[in-house]
Specification:
Elements lengths: L5 H7 L3 H12 L3 E7 L4 E6 L10 E3 L7 E3 L10 H11 L5 E3 L3 H22 L11 H28 L6 H16 L3 H14 L5 H31 L11 H4 L6 H6 L3 E17 L4 E10 L5 E9 L15 E9 L8 E2 L4 E3 L3 H10 L4 H12 L9 E11 L5 E4 L5 E3 L23 E11 L6 E10 L2 E4 L3
Parallel strand pairs: 1-5
Antiparallel strand pairs: 1-2, 2-3, 3-4, 6-7, 6-9, 7-8, 9-10, 9-11, 12-13, 12-15, 13-14, 15-16, 16-17
Length: about 475
Amino acid sequence: MIDITEVFIDTLAPNSAAIKNGQGLVKKKRFVQLNQSEDGVVLFGECGGSGSSNYFPSADFVVSDKPVMRCTCPSRQIPCKHVLGLLYAYVGKETFVSAMIPEELAAKREKMSKREERKSELVAEGATPKPKKVNKSALKKKIGAQLEGLAVLEKLTLSLIRAGLGTLDTKRVKEIQEHVKMMGNFYLTGAQIELRRLALLLSSPDNREKTYTLAIEQLTRIHAFIKKGRAHLTMKLEDTDMALNYDSTIEEWLGHAWQLTELKEFGLMSQDAELIQLSFVSYDDAARQEYVDLGFWIEKSTGDIHRTLQYRPYKAAKYIHEEDSFTEVAVIPSLYYYPGDRNRRVRFENMSTRPLSNQDLEWIAATASRSFSESFKQIKNQLKNPLADKNPVLLLHVNKISKSQQDQFVITDVAGQHLVLDQVAALDQDTLPLLQYFASDQLSDTTMLLMFEHQLDTGRLKAQPLTLIKGKEMIRLLY
């Protein structure tokens, strides 16, 4: 007997439309046949399609928490609405008749089983996938093109700075947009994103003074990228091995997509890790032309707060599974770390789960920093690097949350140091109004996850609360 819930099926769906369409197939009784294998681990059926022929979806639960889902329909979504409908029919207590697995499906299962057996044998023998060999000749040509691109980018940046932001008009914005396309020809995806972000800023109808402040910060970031990128690429050309730099994020800035085998080779991996998600948000990043699913997680063995990032390009978004909030503890056999400092990106392929306990929440509260001054010093040191993440997050113990005479929320630590809370530009949602609905006892001696941002015009830090942890409750302000 397969043990699944409707919530579990929802997490498999690529988007909310797929959930609605899958449930609609069941309500409209489009399934001609519903079957379950004799051993009880495979669901399969026949569903009426939009054309003259029917489709044959299946879900193989030989690995209970990671079903293999197939369908004969032409949809590129995995799982498609027909597989989701099959699963919703199962949890909805529709009648599934025991039957032999169709021959074509059985052949696919056998082929996959042999592949998995071979993988297990290699692991047992101590074999690990070898990192891809570097074609040094091709890499030299690529680096040459990137250095040429950085020179073009520097010329544009200096011309913008010399002319002054006040002289920028639609013609110069169009020139920036043309350079965005050009950076792709030079294999500089990081430059493409940051230039597009600058163009979007300068095209904004918002307050010009605020826009110019942000534009100056963006130009500083681009200039730092040019300087550090050129130094890194020049050093790489001089290195006979042309090795990757795994100590900083410069490789990603220059467009390198880290493979798990590479991260493992550099020792950026741990085993049997446990992660607890503290906050989650999805947003539209117009500069990247992607939707971004961002999760903040705390690692049980270290207390470090990491990020998970999933990018869903506009053109392919409906085919990619959209991540969601996660409320249990993720138990991960192999956790991979990307190069970086605070809140470094992590990635994993497989996991099991266990319920979040009161002991877990007590442990999270105990790991929170109790000194604002020490914490702010760490944040400011990170933000001195123009290429660092502009919005680090930190877990703080807050002695008291109160209102100032200007009607602003203020947090105070045990030493009496305080910080005025404010919305950060990186988040579209303002969480501060939600604090007024908390009981007074929840606003004292509590733990708060905060996202920080540096205000260039005032030189001050500002922070926005993401999550409160008090006693047996974790209350997410973003969900």
